[in-house]
Amino acid sequence: MAEGYETQPALFIDGEWITGGARDSEPVLNPADRSVLAEVPHATDDDLDRALDAAERGFRQWRGVGPDERGRVLQRAAALIRERADRIARIVTLEQGKPLAEAKGEVLGSAGLIDFHAAEAGRVYGRVLMRPAGMRSMVLHQPVGPVAAFCAWNFPALNVVRKLAPAIAAGCSIILKPSEETPGSAVEIMRCFADAGVPGEVAQLVFGVPDTISRRLLASPITRKLSFTGSVPVGKHLMRLAADTVMKMTLELGGHAPVLVFDDCDLDKTLDLLVANKFRNAGQVCVSPTRFHVQQGVYEAFAKGFAERTRAVTVGNGAATGVQMGPMANPRRPEAVAAMVDDAAAKGARILAGGGRGEEGGFFFQPTVLADVPLDAKAMIDEPFGPVALIRPFTADEDAIAEANRLPYGLAAYCFTESGRRQNVLAEAVETGMLAINQARMTWPDSPFGGVKESGFGSEDGPEGIMAHMVTKAVHIA
Ligand code: NAD
Fold it and tell me: Taking CB atoms and a 6 Å cutoff, what residues make up the pocket around ligand 1?
């Protein structure tokens, strides 16, 4: 076992940790140096059928447990995550690449999100409707049933918690398939839930060939909800599979966040915030600021200031002290980003910083700034999901808004302006699930997180996160 990788990737089915047997497996790599950290076992069809059977039993049992008790179990899980945060953060960094401080922040943030859902479990309210004498109508919210959830590798702890916590709070059971590229973090988070008292048939963990697993879980009439975090094409594919049994869905898909920077912003503060956020997690964040539309009056100063700050970002192994940006998480990302940068440069973009792979050995890509990027560059159309800032000028407010709304994505958007009137116009006009004005934080436990258009639908976090696991029933009594 690699130093610090204190975990063993395993399936968790019906309360049993399963590490191998005759199953297929695949290696888990450290993206900083491509070394093999462990092998992750693949679930067989029998494993998946066992998990489905357990999820059905788990749902019948767990829906009958009071919200206060569900909340207490979740609070214990949050406390265990805090206790184990240093060890889990090291695992996150080793298998995903992000700097240790970011990993620790992610793990502690996950605990905070669980605490929110623990309290929220007791805040699912119905309605009583007045009728003619002797009659009443009630509106009830009931847990939807067993959930099949799939999530990506970019937040190996938080993505897992975002699936588990609201489902458990709502009284559902859940089978989760996290990414095979970051299984150790998921295993350690799941251990916290199990050690806290979540029954083994209520929350289960599987790994394998993603398409095989999602086809089997979504074809089963036992599964009543699909929850997915990942790319738009895979989200569309899973929607089609889920259509056959008409299940409830939450889809957290990609983004291509526009950033509208107006002449009247506080330029230095704006640049400090944006550069720090652009290169967080090497840009592999669905709400990462990506298309920077900058008003003519500050365009050159913005591009120059962005490039200067970017060149000062320290890149290296996320486990080393002082590193601000680690490698990308897997070999697909630097390859995709390199192709986009080359394409943009060939179409006339100016490379102001970075532009190449950087360090040898791991899946690195340099923090990169491109200016004057033409609209037909691939990077201005497809989600780069990497450490690349794309900068373009605009003149009129209407042009900036039209540009923000040009793509089929609608997850996150950012605006920087001191004008209150303009802030109100933008809040109304930008087609997005989340809008940050004069700041860059999008994620708060009590605030809905989700997109519109092809970025998906349904929200995680906030009261909306638990309600997305409920169905509504109207009862009319004489
Ligand atoms: P991908 O879409 O192939 O994989 C993303 C995740 O979905 C992985 O964890 C994978 O295991 C899972 N997945 C893939 N196919 C699946 C299937 N048929 N059934 C169930 N799960 C499946 O892409 P990738 O190469 O890993 O990531 C690249 C793209 O994914 C990025 O460009 C970005 O658009 C998107 N992405 C989005 C988010 C997000 O938070 N919304 C997170 C990570 C990746």
Answer: 150, 152-154, 179, 210-211, 214, 229-231, 234, 237-238, 252-254, 286, 332, 383, 385
Atom of ligand 1 nearest to the CA of 180: 11
Same fold, 11-253+455-477 and 257-437: no
Q: Are 10 and 41 in contact (CB under 8 A)?
A: yes
Q: For the full predicted model, state whether its pTM sits above 0.95.
A: yes
CA of 329 to the centre of ligand 1 (A): 12
Q: Where do the domains of the chain lie? A: 11-253+455-477, 257-437
- Residues catalogued as catalytic: 252, 286
Helix (H, G, I), strand (E, B) or coil at 327: coil
| Local confidence pLDDT in tens for the 478 residues of the chain | 678 899 999 999 999 999 988 899 999 999 999 999 999 999 999 999 999 999 999 999 999 999 999 999 999 999 999 999 999 999 999 999 999 999 999 999 999 999 999 999 999 999 999 999 999 999 999 999 999 999 999 999 999 999 999 999 999 999 999 999 999 999 999 999 999 999 999 999 999 999 999 999 999 999 999 999 999 999 999 999 999 999 999 999 999 999 999 999 999 999 999 999 999 999 999 999 999 999 999 999 999 999 999 999 999 999 999 999 999 999 999 999 999 999 999 999 999 999 999 877 899 999 999 999 999 999 999 999 999 999 999 999 999 999 999 999 999 999 999 999 999 999 999 999 999 999 999 999 999 999 999 999 999 999 999 999 999 999 999 9
- What is the C-alpha separation between 392 and 303, in angstroms, rounded? 9
Top CATH class of 257-437 equals alpha beta
Exposed / middle / buried, residue 267 (Cβ in 10 Å: 0-12, 13-18, 19+): middle
Shortest-distance Cα residue to atom 35 of ligand 1:
231
- For ligand 1, atom 33, the nearest C-alpha belongs to 231
For domain 11-253+455-477, say whether CATH 3.40.50.2000 is its number. Answer: no
Helix (H, G, I), strand (E, B) or coil at 132: coil
Token pair 């004057």 is at which residue?
372
Atom of ligand 1 nearest to the CA of 232: 34
**Where do the H-state alpha helices sit in 147-231?**
158-170, 183-196, 210-219
**Start-to-end C-alpha separation, the chain:** 66
